[in-house]
Every structure is written in C-alpha cells, then in structure tokens.
C-alpha cells in the first residue's frame, strides 16, 4: 500500500479509501485514477489478514469435523455449510480430527487464533457429545450432534419424523405384518426411528403385535443375517435401519428366490448416493439431510435462523419413494407357484 | 502483549522472547516468571495472524477441491492432505468449488490473501485440466489431475499399473477368455486401465482375440446392461471399470442363475468402501490411492518429495484380493447341471 501511495503521489489513507471504496471519502477523480493505475501496475492486492487485524474480525468460520472421509455424509455437511457461508461472505476453515482429542483441541485453538466469526462442530453420526473446552466461550453451533449436560445450540436430523415417513410408505401400501431391522448401536437414530415407526402404527390403528423388531449390524452383513427371522415372521413389509442393511436383505431374499417388492416390500434410510437408487429394484428410502444440516448450522451461527428454546433445531428427513414398495400379495400367480 | 508487558513490568520485546521461546534471548529467571504469570492471569494467546503478518508467512496451505461431497473420494484426498499437513505444522484452508469457475477464482484470491504457503488443486476424478490463472505464480501442486499445455507438478494415480494388477488377478487364476467392461467417458482411467490390461495379456502371452472390450455407463446400470454380451462372449473372467459396474454385473448374473466366482470371476476397481467388501461374494478389486494422493501432494508442495522431470508423480493402485476370483471351471458338477 505504501508503494502504491508513493507511485500515485498520494497519502496511504487515500489509497486505503480508494481500494476499500469508502463511501464517505472525498477523493478527486484524478487522484483516484492515479491510485487505480498504480494498483494495476504494481499488482497490489488488499491483505485480508492485515484488514482483519485492524478491524478485529475475520471473514472466516471454523468447521471442526470428526470425520470427513469415512463416510459420504460428512462431505455433505461441509458442502452445505460452505455454500451458505460463501453466500454470506464467509469462508470455511476446515479441520478434520478423526476423533483425536488432541488434534481437536489444537484445531480449535488455531481457529480462535485466526479470530473466526464462530465454529461449527460436527460429527458424522448423530449423537450426544461433550462440548470441547475450547468452545465454551466462543460462538458455536453443533451440527449432527448435541451437547450432553451443558446447553449449546445444535442442528440435528429429525430421526423420529424420518422413522414415521419410512413406516408410512409401507403402511400406505397396505402392509400390516412388518419387521424393523434396527441397529445394535444405541443412538438417537436407533431410538428415534423406532419411535417414529410406532407412531405410524398408532396413526393407522395397527397392532404392535404384528411388528417384529430385530437388532443387526448396520451394514450389508447385518441385513443379510436378519433375513431368516424376517422370512420366518412372515413380514410383507420391512423397514431397514439404513440402505446398507437393505442391500444385504435384498441379497438374502434373492438367494431364497423371493421377489422385491412383489413378495416383500422394503424401505431403507439414509438415501446413500452410491447404493439406494442403484439397487434392483431401486430402493424407497428416507434421506438424511446432511447438506441442509450444514446450511442451517451456518445460518444459526450467524443469527439468521432462530434456534428454539430447547437449543436443538431438528431438520426433516424427507421420504424418497422409488420401486421397492408394492401392495402385499401383489406377486403374480405364476411367480408365487 | 502490551498488557502482559505492563503487568509484568518488562518490555514488549521481553514478553515476545518468553512467549516465543527465543533460543538466543537472555532473560532473567525472575522476569520470565513474571511474564509467565501475567500470560496466565490475562489469558494471553499469541495471535498467529499478527505473527504471520510480521514474518510475511503463514502456517496455512490452501486446498481447492472441485467436489468434496459428490463422491467419497474427495474426502480421502482431504484426509490424507490434512494428516500430512498437520504432521508438518501446517493447517488446511479448504474450499469446495463444485466446479464453479467464479467460486474457484475467489477461493484462490482469498487463499493468497491469507498468504498461504502454497495451494493444492484437486479434482474428484483423474483428468487433465487448465491451470487456473490465480495459480500461475504461486507454489502449487495438482492432485488427481494434471495441467494440459503448461507444466505444473502433479500427483496422480497410476491407472496403467492398476489395470495391470486387476488383469493379473484374473490371469493368475488361469482365466484366458476375458471381458473388460470399460467406461464410455474418455479419461486417463479409461485409456490407462485398458493399456494395463493389454500389458498383462502380453506378460502371459495371451491372445488379444480372446478379449472383449465393451463401453458402459460407469454405474451399476452399465454393468447390468453389459451382462448379456459378456455371457454371450463366454467370458470366464470379467474386469469392470469400477466397483459400481461390478455390482450391477453381479445382479445381472444372479438373475441368470450364474454363480460368482465358480462360473464367472469378477474384478472391480476403486475399492469403494460402502460396496466392494460388502458384495456377495466380497469383490476382489484395485484401490484408488486417494488418501496417498493427498499425502504426496502436501509432501511435493513442501519440497519433501522430488517430483520427476515429467512433472507428474504417479502413485500405485494396490490390488485388494477378496473372494470374487476362482480358477475357471471350478463350478461343482451339481451346480453346473
């Protein structure tokens, strides 16, 4: 800036007014032209570090993620957060901790050192967590997790609503003999989706005695292993804890020569991109709103979105109907024979 | 720092020496204790922005990615880059452009404004690209892509070597009647994997006339649709352009009552986490080394890894043998009947 001022023959503050387009400054047209020419010639770029240091603020927002790579989900949170941050003139400073507490503490210290506007703290799976010490006295929003014990604003998926939507797809097609292959891991997803399923049964007055609930490993292998009990139970509609479980169930039912959806209708959860739409038949499922969680997290941090008094904002999990649900007993006589 | 100096009754430069642990400074034990007590009491944190501004450098490295969310792959590049950057005392400033040229230009300007040590420019799929204007005069390394026209250091997967490894798995089991379901999209992956397959045929003196090469959409639907021609050709071993294609081929062969690997052996590519190890049988494949690309990109940027005179460093794609390859004709007589 000093060089620009010297070359243009003006003061440094004049350069600053021109470069920063200060609305109140009275700069003559000629001086302005000389500054602009010098800026061009010297390739001067305003330095946001210096600017932030002077103004005591930055256009950075920190995003601490416990896993950016292990699942496609964390990437969607980053994507949504970044789109919304850019829209508001902010840039994300991202740190991936892979759950390492030391890396996490360092990342938060570093972000605070860069004077971030605030910090989003996100986890790849929806869960309760302890608020890291470094986030106690800074603007922060938890994304896909919530603070246990202490209050902190949080944005999480509506697991109960998602379970309700999943079950409604089966019930609306007429299924009453149902199985739910849930996960073995205690989590808001496990409890919430089951509660949603039960609420859906109550909506239509269906008997809980016609529901089989199983716990299985939340991967293809879990769905495959659960098939035997599901078939023995005579379920015509199966809600799977996630799309990977549904994929394993598809394999097991096909090995038994059973057709989907004619003999068994199946609904998944997650809407996992590389799987759900590409099974045969394409899987009806419920989407986890990770992109939206990132967007809402930024909005809550910037005060653009009110967080309810509970401190927790829930984001809907929308149904994604495809071709794995049909009315019960829709197998043709030839196939059933 | 001024407040710390006042409270401790020392000069600002003494505070600086103590805080920065300057090796050459001679500070009395008593003054040092007073400074440390004041730092503690006032909760002083050194400000890296101010420090960088003074020293004219930062501990930031920029990472521009064209897609962090659309595939699980970009996340692995970020993960590898971040692990290596942290190890070297650097932090990643990540921008996700989703291929938007304006966002990309803004991101690069912003990163340069923050005085980054250098910039990694990465793409989710391996391809040639034009070097963005903002990267012309800054330390930069391309990751998973290479500059067309102008020279720039690049780190990319060894597609040819990967194709060689994939084909060797089938050839080593004794297969000679082969099919390759390649992709329809022209790319280094398409050309490289085919060249590797041909090199593998030459290694064992196999005839090219026993190889069927098909182009298909690089998703499950492409593999499913290709099955008919593969079966008509009588291939006993099939190399698929990626794991998603292999998954579609599995579905189509099973519908025909054919068994994998007893009747048809299959090899994929990518080692896509949510699919490859969870098919029935688990898929033998070749891994795309995205994590390693991120690590090597940082190392090349920091001058810790020599980049060959071609400007392009290739990273091996290692084979991941599982259970989808067996010798031809290993179906039991009962099953064949």
Name some characteristics of this structure.
12 helices; homodimer; 3 domains; Rossmann fold; 337 residues; 6-stranded parallel β-sheet; 434 Repressor (Amino-terminal Domain)
Q: If you had to describe this structure to a student in words, what would you say it looks like?
A:
The structure is a homodimer of 337-residue chains. With 337 residues, chain A is an alpha/beta fold. Chain A has three domains: 2-46, 434 Repressor (Amino-terminal Domain), CATH 1.10.260; 55-152 and 291-315, Rossmann fold, CATH 3.40.50; 159-284 and 321-336, 3-Layer(aba) Sandwich (Rossmann fold). Chain A is built from twelve helices and twelve strands. Chain A has helices spanning 2-8, 12-19, 29-42, 48-55, 72-87, 101-113, 159-172, 188-204, 220-233, 243-255, 290-301, 333-336, and strands at residues 60-65, 91-96, 119-129, 140-147, 154-157, 178-183, 211-216, 237-240, 265-267, 285-286, 312-315, 319-320. In chain A, the strands form three sheets. In chain A, strands 2-1-3-4-5-11 form a six-stranded parallel sheet, sandwiched between helices. A four-stranded parallel sheet of chain A has the order 7-6-8-9, with helices on both faces. Chain A has a two-stranded antiparallel ribbon with strand order 10-12. In chain A, strand 1, helix 5 (72-87) and strand 2 form a beta-alpha-beta unit. In chain A, helix 5 (72-87) packs parallel to helix 11 (290-301). Chain A is elongated and about 90 Å long. The model of chain A has no long low-confidence stretch (mean pLDDT 90). Chains A and B meet through helix 4, helix 5, strand 2, helix 6 and helix 9 of A and helix 4, helix 5, strand 2, helix 6 and helix 9 of B. Chains A, B: One of its GO terms (molecular function) is DNA binding. Chains A, B: Pfam families: LacI, Peripla_BP_3.
């Amino acid at each position: 800036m000093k060089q620009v001022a010297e070359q243009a023959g003006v003061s440094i503050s004049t350069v600053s007014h021109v470069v920063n387009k200060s609305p109140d400054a009275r700069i003559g047209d000629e001086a302005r032209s000389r500054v602009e020419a010098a800026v061009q010639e010297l390739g001067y770029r305003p330095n946001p570090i210096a600017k932030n240091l002077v103004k005591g603020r930055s256009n950075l927002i920190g995003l601490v993620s416990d896993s950016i790579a292990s699942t496609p989900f964390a990437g969607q949170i980053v994507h949504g957060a970044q789109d919304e941050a850019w829209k508001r003139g902010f840039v994300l400073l991202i740190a991936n901790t892979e759950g390492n507490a030391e890396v996490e503490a360092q990342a938060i210290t570093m972000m605070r050192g860069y004077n971030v506007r605030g910090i989003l703290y996100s986890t790849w799976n929806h869960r309760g967590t302890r608020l890291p010490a470094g986030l106690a006295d800074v603007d922060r929003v938890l994304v896909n997790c919530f603070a246990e014990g202490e209050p902190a604003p949080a944005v999480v998926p509506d697991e109960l609503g998602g379970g309700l939507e999943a079950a409604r797809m089966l019930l609306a097609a007429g299924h009453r003999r149902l199985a739910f292959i849930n996960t073995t891991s205690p989590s808001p997803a496990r409890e919430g989706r089951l509660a949603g399923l039960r609420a859906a049964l109550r909506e239509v007055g269906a008997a809980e005695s016609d529901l089989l609930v199983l716990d299985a490993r939340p991967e293809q292998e879990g769905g495959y292993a659960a098939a035997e009990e599901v078939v023995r139970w005579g379920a015509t509609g199966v809600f799977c804890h996630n799309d990977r479980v549904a994929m394993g169930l598809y394999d097991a039912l096909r090995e038994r020569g059973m057709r989907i959806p004619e003999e068994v209708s199946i609904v998944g959860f997650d809407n996992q991109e590389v799987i759900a739409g590409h099974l045969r038949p394409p899987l009806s499922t419920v989407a986890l709103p990770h992109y939206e969680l990132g967007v809402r997290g930024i909005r809550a941090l910037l005060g653009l979105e009110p967080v309810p008094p509970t401190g927790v904002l829930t984001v809907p999990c929308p149904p994604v109907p495809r071709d794995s649900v049909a009315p019960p007993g829709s197998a043709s006589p030839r196939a059933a024979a």
